[in-house]
Amino acid sequence: xxxxxxxxxxxxxxxxxxxxxxxxxxxxxxxxxxxxxxxxxxxxxxxxxxxxxxxxxxxxxxxxxxxxxxxxxxxxxxxxxxxxxxxxxxxxxxxxxxxxxxxxxxxxxxxxxxxxxxxxxxxxxxxxxxxxxxxxxxxxxxxxxxxxxxxxxxxxxxxxxxxxxxxxxxxxxxxxxxxxxxxxxxxxxxxxxxxxxxxxxxxxxxxxxxxxxxxxxxxxxxxxxxxxxxxxxxxxxxxxxxxxxxxxxxxxxxxxxxxxxxxxxxxxxxxxxxxxxxxxxxxxxxxxxxxxxxxxxxxxxxxxxxxxxxxxxxxxxxxxxxxxxxxxxxxxxxxxxxxxxxxxxxxxxxxxxxxxxxxxxxxxxxxxxxxxxxxxxxxxxxxxxxxxxx
Amino acid sequence: xxxxxxxxxxxxxxxxxxxxxxxxxxxxxxxxxxxxxxxxxxxxxxxxxxxxxxxxxxxxxxxxxxxxxxxxxxxxxxxxxxxxxxxxxxxxxxxxxxxxxxxxxxxxxxxxxxxxxxxxxxxxxxxxxxxxxxxxxxxxxxxxxxxxxxxxxxxxxxxxxxxxxxxxxxxxxxxxxxxxxxxxxxxxxxxxxxxxxxxxxxxxxxxxxxxxxxxxxxxxxxxxxxxxxxxxxxxxxxxxxxxxxxxxxxxxxxxxxxxxxxxxxxxxxxxxxxxxxxxxxxxxxxxxxxxxxxxxxxxxxxxxxxxxxxxxxxxxxxxxxxxxxxxxxxxxxxxxxxxxxxxxxxxxxxxxxxxxxxxxxxxxxxxxxxxxxxxxxxxxxxxxxxxxxx
Lengths: 390, 390
What we know:
Two copies of one chain form a homodimer.
Chain A: H1 4-21, E1 25-28, H2 31-38, E2 50-54, E3 61-65, H3 66-75, E4 83-86, H4 98-108, E5 115-118, H5 127-136, E6 141-144, H6 148-153, H7 158-181, H8 188-201, E7 240-249, E8 252-262, H9 267-286, H10 293-306, E9 316-319, E10 328-333, E11 347-350, E12 354-355, E13 360-361, E14 365-369, E15 374-376, E16 385-387
Parallel strand pairs in A: 1-5, 3-4, 5-6, 8-16
Antiparallel strand pairs in A: 1-2, 2-3, 7-8, 9-10, 9-11, 11-14, 12-13, 14-15
Helix pairs in contact in A: 4-5, 7-8, 9-10
């Protein structure tokens, strides 16, 4: 939980964004944004819910399902009157919809003719949510305010950074648990279980939260595709495995990926690995406030091009507070044409995964932008780990 | 992985639903529905993707991000030509959108003037996805086909039921792990870690998959709200804890909730528990093919009313294949006005949680509807567990 002062700062920055977008009311649906503004923390985002910010009101509203309202009272900073809920027959009904309730509420509050911002592409703000808003608020002007709160979240407070340092500690432990457990004859799910145990145990002095993405552990030719999870197959000698996981502390996620070979790795894998390591060193040395995300991407592109390699996908993105299904913040990406300017206290997952037809190499770093450059949040050997096997 | 025959049956039933809805093309966005139709299994649903079914084509199309296409080739049954991907600069961009790509593709295939079904309220089909479809396909008639595939999923095949039996075994083990670990002085996250370990380990002969919802472990007054997860606080003597978790096997989820007291439970808790147990017995005894979901709900309501209790929220819902954020199928709910008729091989989570201002009792059963009644998928003592503590 953050101080009232910190929530007030977040809210004021959000209201400043609302002014820039020209909206008096902002309807948030992304659970990460809802939590960022109010503190609300529960796995209830499988039903529709919203946080509504009014430019002229001190406290936002939380609206969700009846059984979750108590959880909102317990986890948010607002007064209980600002926690509202819709009846249970609105849940997953083909007749009633929670956004009918929300539109009606805005009408009752006299906001039916206002400029209202919505997160049109946010997780859980479905086409139907927007349809019900359009139909329920015919006099309003609905505007897509996009990632407004995402941009506010970009620069972290000292307390947020302290949370991310704890998450970074956890991901180091979880990766070490994977390194220790993985072996010929061990099942993929048993490695996943060891990772989970470390992620949730955390440390002796603080506990882990659930990361926003489950362990991703593709093996063999599957390493050509990064988002496969695991099976109950047993590892064989010579298997290549990419491991992409996060540590999480109070919803702040710090990811890391490494590549493991059970026994000696193939030359083509080691060759890619060597180029990736050089690319990481040179790119991280370049990153500092004032440079753009596109410039960061181009340093990477130039290093690997020297060796004849190229990569189509982005090489990183901002991270922080998050809920499933993603630990990225969806604002800055390290890629061509992203001219966002880096500033101190932004945090990124530098993610230069290389994926081919039947193998891949993933080695990544989560980094904090400082006044003069970057600080790596984790300290974990980056080389391809060739585990000795029988 | 299911047989080609089973996927063909699923596809044909889906096409039958398309005929009923009057659409020639169906765009699926819910990852559970995408997997049900194609087998696609990866944690890639944090970027937009779709499976498209054409009423006059044998195989659906999968469309996603470039780095995920290989995973689609490896996990789906379709020919590689039916796996298509959009360029990476469509990912989380404020300029390009994956559904621009999808609309363009439909135009190129000559489907721009067709009746096209979309899952308007599906997870991950955002307002923006629908906007891009409307703008990109001005001659098409877009129709909300709602939970079309959800209704197909409702009746499980023998193989699906065999998967759910494995998931049921896993949730029993996970609940036992929680019972064993929870104690005065233990941290909430340590109980969560024990649950995870059992969930992912599975059994000696098959491994566990990740459940679609993380362990929910509210403690003390938090038990009045079911979807809170955990903290790193240590349990105290007298704490009441509700534990709602699932076991998962190859994406099939079987949930279970139980209520634990560290030491003697309060009378008000035991009183509710007693009524809940009687309500469960009587309601489960009533369930059989031919009865409606509303009738099931009313048996429950009548039992608890005898003791002066009432419950606003639904008392259960269909379950099966699922991805985060939900293990429910969003079709049948046990509640007033849901006149869906029960049939053999439907599977439900009977979930009569009772939540009050400062405490709650959750005791649930996952059940299979048989030819003559029901079979409980799990066998685990239902009583409130008053653990002996120091």
